[in-house]
Design a protein that fits this description.
Helices cover 20% and strands 31% of the residues. The chain is α+β, with helices and mostly antiparallel strands and 153 residues long. The longest helix has 15 residues.
Length: 153
C-alpha cells in the first residue's frame, strides 16, 4: 500500500509540472497507546525484508527532476538479517526528491532497514517505514527474534 501512495504522489508531481506544488510526504503514525512490541510485530509482518548494516556507498539515478536525481541507491554491508535476503551486501532504493517519502541515508552510518517492496529483487525504502539509524542495536531487535548472519560473497 505504501508503494501505491509513493507512485500516486510521484505521478501527481510529474503531472503538475513541479515538485514544489506536490504535497509533503505524510505517513500514518501508530495509534496512540500501541506499544513498541506490537509496532515491530506489525512492521515485521508487512515487510519484505528487515536487516541491519552499514552504508558503504550511495549512488544516484541519472533520471532528474528540477536538476535533482530522482532516486538514491544505498549499498549496505549487512551485519544481521531477520527477514528476506541474507546477502553480505544489499542495495536499497529510495526517492531522492522532495515529497516522495524517500529515506536519507548517510555514508558510513548504520541502520536497521525495513523494506516493504513488492519485488524482493529491488528493495525499496521509504521514510514511512521503521527504517532508522542505529548505534549498536536497535530497540526493535528485542522483538524481531533471532537474527541471521549474512552469507559471504
Amino acid at each position: 500500500m505504501k508503494n501505491y501512495l509513493l507512485i500516486a504522489i510521484f505521478t501527481a508531481a510529474v503531472f503538475l509540472g513541479s515538485v514544489q506544488t506536490a504535497s509533503a510526504c505524510s505517513c500514518l503514525a501508530p495509534a496512540p497507546g500501541v506499544n513498541l512490541k506490537t509496532q515491530v510485530r506489525e512492521a515485521r509482518s508487512s515487510a519484505t525484508a528487515i536487516f541491519a548494516g552499514k552504508v558503504v556507498s550511495i549512488r544516484y539515478s541519472d533520471e532528474k527532476m528540477d536538476g535533482q536525481p530522482v532516486k538514491a541507491y544505498a549499498k549496505i554491508a549487512v551485519t544481521r538479517s531477520w527477514k528476506g535476503p541474507v546477502s553480505e551486501f544489499i542495495e536499497v532504493e529510495t526517492a531522492n526528491i522532495c515529497c516522495l517519502c524517500g529515506y536519507t541515508f548517510e555514508d558510513g552510518k548504520t541502520y536497521i532497514i525495513y523494506s516493504n517492496s513488492t519485488d524482493p529483487a529491488s528493495l525499496g525504502v521509504s521514510s514511512c517505514s521503521r527504517t532508522s539509524q542505529i548505534v549498536g542495536k536497535s530497540p526493535d531487535e528485542k522483538y524481531l527474534g533471532k537474527a541471521r548472519k549474512p552469507k559471504k560473497s
